[in-house]
Amino acid sequence: MHKILFVCLGNICRSPFAEAALKHFVRQSGLQDSYIIDSAGIGGWHVGQRPDRRMVEAAWQRGYKMEHFGRQVCADDFLIFDMLIGMDDSNIDSLEQIAPSLEAKAKIRRMVDFVSDDFRKKHPNSVIDSVPDPYYGGTAGFYYAIDLIEDACQGLMLQLEKQ
Ligand code: 4NP
Predict the structure, then answer these.
(1) Which is nearest to 83 in space by CA: 162, 3, 15, 157?
(2) Quick one: which atom of ligand 1 is closest to the CA of 51?
């Protein structure tokens, strides 16, 4: 069983999309019984809320339905999940502060570490060191986040299925 928690700042844009995308790929491969996939936010501002409507719309255009309700990450998540994947370095710093033990800290990953070389070659002018927060920008930022997260989710699944 693979237990994966995606984490971003608000849990209404990046991490709930990552949850939807990985669930989609896992279902496509018939592996849904081998995965527990969820998402959470560092902050608690959007607890109980549906994802940002701009992300819901962009995801819908790409064929994804987002079902998540916002929730805040907590120390117990380090007991439940075996990988907690942050979208940017600020998320990683916060997760390191919440982690209740060294063993828990070792479960933290960076989303961009699963991005393929192909994706990097297709975006030669971008430094891909985070999944940028699309919240304060325009529509293009949401589509870029979707492209990047789709690629990273496929990379993550490949890695997990190789184990
Ligand atoms: P996310 O985007 O971390 O990708 O969900 C954000 C959503 C909300 C806020 C910040 C980032 N906010 O400050 O409310």
Answers:
(1) 3
(2) 5
Per-residue pLDDT tens over the stretch 64-74: 999 999 999 99
Write the CB contacts of 34 (distance below 8 Å, at least 6 apart in sequence): 1, 2, 26
Tokens 């709930």 appear where? 16
Each residue's pLDDT tens digit, 100-140? 999 999 999 999 999 999 999 999 988 999 999 999 999 99
Residue nearest to atom 7 of ligand 1 (CA): 10
* Helix (H/G/I), strand (E/B), else coil: 146: helix
* Torsion angles phi and psi, residue 90, rounded to 5: -65, -40
Which secondary-structure segment (H or E) carries 6? strand 2-8
CA neighbours closer than 13 Å in the CB half-sphere of residue 26: 24
Q: How far is the CA of 57 from the centre of ligand 1 (A)?
A: 16
DSSP string, 30-82: T-GGGEEEEEEESS-TTTTPPPPHHHHHHHHHTT--------B--TTHHHH-S
pTM here?
Answer: 0.98
CATH number for the domain running over 2-162: 3.40.50.2300
